[in-house]
Amino acid sequence: QVQLVESGGGSVQAGWSLRLSCAASGYIYNGYMGWFRQAPGKEREGVAAIRPGYVNTYYADSVKGRFTISQDNAKNTYLQMNSLKPEDTGMYYCAAGWPATYAILTSTGYKYWGQGTQVTVTS
Question: How many CA atoms lie within 13 A of 101 on its CB side?
Answer without folding.
Answer: 2
